[in-house]
Amino acid sequence: MRAGRILLGEASLTALGLVGRRPTRSLDRRIEKAGSLAAYDVLVSDDLDTPDEQIEAALDASVSCVLWSDGVEAERFHQRFIAAGRTLLVGANLAHGLAPSLAAHEAAVIEETPADAVLGAEVAWTEPGRALRRGEAMPFPEPVGPRWATLQPHTGRVRRFVAPVEGQWAAAMARVTVGTSDGVHVRVLGVADHAAHLEALSLAAGAVAIGEYPYGLATPEDRAEYYLAAAVEAGLDVAAYTTTR
Question: Which of 5, 41, 99, 189 is the residue whose CA sits 20 to 30 A from 232?
Answer without folding.
Answer: 41
